[in-house]
Amino acid sequence: GENVEQHPSTLSVQEGDSAVIKCTYSDSASNYFPWYKQELGKRPQLIIDIRSNVGEKKDQRIAVTLNKTAKHFSLHITETQPEDSAVYFCAASKNNFNKFYFGSGTKLNVKP
Amino acid sequence: DTAVSQTPKYLVTQMGNDKSIKCEQNLGHDTMYWYKQDSKKFLKIMFSYNNKELIINETVPNRFSPKSPDKAHLNLHINSLELGDSAVYFCASSPTTGTSQQYFGPGTRLTVT
Prior knowledge:
The complex is a heterodimer of chains A (112) and B (113). Chain A has 112 residues and is mainly β. Chain A has strands at 5-7, 10-14, 19-24, 32-38, 45-51, 56-59, 62-67, 72-77, 86-92, 101-102, 106-111. With 113 residues, chain B is mainly β. In chain B, the strands form two sheets. In chain B, strands 2, 4, 5, 6, 9, 10 and 11 form a seven-stranded mixed β-sheet that branches. In chain B, strands 1-3-8-7 form a four-stranded antiparallel β-sheet, with no helix packed on it. The termini of chain B are far apart. The A-B interface holds A 31-32, 34, 38, 42-46, 49, 51, 87, 89, 93-100, 102, 104-105, 107 and B 31, 33, 40-45, 48, 50, 55-56, 58, 90, 97-107.
């Protein structure tokens, strides 16, 4: 089965700096990679996703990159703000498969 | 206009009791899921249903029994609750299988004393 590893487990940055969270996956058939943000006491919410036919995707201050050969994908947040503080999860899935494999989460703390 | 709703939001009960958590989605999605999030924040899938049919059952004790009366509802019944069942349980739904966005419910914080 799929194994998704996520690093780092905690990340502390100064407001305005960039933050990068990395994930690796093991199943080369995985072709959908969403990222979720979970604020304290709230539900996980999708912030960005990427499919395997694309190498990079951006949405304002958030970007995701995918390296299919190396089987890793990363979340990049630029110009971080205190409201970016949350736990971020990566996940991997594939066509016709009712299961998402989640990473172990990264707690991001943005210091004002 | 809540997309995925769960009840109750909080559940405190004693060991050995039986309890249920309800989930409903009004998005017209075909697939629904139950996840368990423990104190370390690991999100672990428990069950996946597609059009009322059980698709995935992830090594979950048979004290946990999901039921899907229709594709908009997926309830979770837990028998003989144990201390280790304490966690936040999230319901989620997605339009189709696999490569489509999941929408999570608000979660149910279960505390077993």
